[in-house]
């Protein structure tokens, strides 16, 4: 049976005891208070400013941008050196390299096939470098300047760092500059002095190695961030489950105290047929409440006006015949529905405790007002006999579970002030001071 039906049944039963379960609140309209991050609210999606996937996009797009710049920079020199090369082979190789770079750029924008296109760029560059002497018209003719592929060496090693595993990326970063250095000492490469060729080789290795280190350090760091976040989310999930279990325990303890124990006490005091009928009705209601405790909890963000909470408390107070209710500055205030249910149940339980245990009292009152945290404060007071808090047995559930734990679970706080012969006041405040709006 649904929670709504169970509470409707509780409302319809007759007797002198005050029911702690009546028709639940209904949500208010556009002025409902939004509860983002409340105890039972929907969890926010975790912010993730840095992740492995994001850093891969940033790195690949950076390399793509550099590749475009260096490719454009090499075009004038390529056209200048074209006259000394076999155009039927040189132009297709240059075209393939340019096309592969273009594909790589689009891959980074579309976030598809980034590593594959980067590997193609690296592969075509290495092939173009190895066949450089073979594409010259006269391999013995000394080239007047460096081969235009020099400008693309760092691009090729950076693409290899993006595309290849660490071992193969390191190997490519070493082999490609060495291959360029060997071409550099040939006539087709400008017939540079050995020292100059070695310097060019180590310079290319240094640039490629620096890019490689940056890429893999960032990858390792973001991988650790992702792992730490996954572990944190897993621990949070466990904590949420534990909290849900504790909330359920508090609810069941409250039901046991509010319904089951009250039913047993009523049954023990039956003296006539009318009392037996009332005890049976209370027993049926207690069974329903225990069954519906296994149902799904309402976790939505619906809100209700505090004035509706006051109306329900006033109705319960009227049923006692001894409490008066005062409403102070609650117009326009709204609170989450599950909070209103908790405050109402705790308030009613406080009134029931006063009627059952405070003895004769000149006055009993309930005051509901707004507070400076956009919430509400409820004072339940009597001028009865009071009691010594230190003498209350730990097994008693009325104060600890039905009031204190129930309010704390909803994000509020309940404070008890009492002493022998001085009456009792229970102050219920939501949200908890310093926790504005239940955040």
UniProtKB/TrEMBL annotation:
Protein name listed in UniProt: ATP-binding protein
Lineage, uppermost ranks: Bacteria, Bacillati, Actinomycetota, Actinomycetes, Micrococcales
Keyword Transmembrane helix set for record: yes
InterPro entries per record: HATPase_C_sf, HATPase_dom, Sensor_HK_TwoCompSys
Pfam families xref list: HATPase_c (PF02518)
Cited PANTHER family: NITRATE/NITRITE SENSOR PROTEIN NARX-RELATED
One Gene Ontology MF term: ATP binding
Segments passing through the bilayer: 58-79, 91-110, 116-137, 149-175, 195-218
Organism: Cryobacterium flavum
Keywords from the UniProt entry: ATP-binding, Kinase, Membrane, Nucleotide-binding, Transferase, Transmembrane, Transmembrane helix, Two-component regulatory system
Domain Histidine kinase/HSP90-like ATPase: 342-432
Domain of life of the source: Bacteria
